[in-house]
Fold this protein.
Amino acid sequence: MSVQIRINRHGAARVESGHPWVFQSDVVDASNAQPGDVVAVLNQQGRQLGVAHYSAASQISLRFLSRKPEVVDSAFWHDRLSRALKHRALVVEHSNAYRLVFAEADGLPGLIVDRYGDYLVVQTLTQGMDRAKEVSRPKASCDRRDTLAPVTGERDPGAGRDPHAHEREGNDRQRIDSAHEVMRSRA
């Protein structure tokens, strides 16, 4: 990893206490970093504190991916996604709708993945995850639905609509349609 960012003493103390972010005001030098880069985070003495995604657009400039020096490659992403999936298999019972990936809680800051039955909804909320999403797409395809397929086994999680979703979720379809009518009439 060639891009390094130095942070001040205050930022380093926060990181060393376990905080997952570094704020823009604690960044000393980010001159070589591009938005979304995976960077080595160094304290003022040059000791590496871990690797993080860099953001030029947010007050949260660095979101940690790891507290140790490691390569962030396809194996890294596969491992993190696999761990999130295994954890949810242990804690989610009797539901086919749940949060599969929960950003920092799963070591994947800026990534939210919700599962609704056979469908996955992916949100990338940082420049780093936007870029990781681009890199993780298969070269033969530009369809982002393939990104999580090796981990989830879902090849086509977003195709079409599920006509029975409201019934499975316990929603009264007539009541929902009536609410939409009321909203339209007020517009």
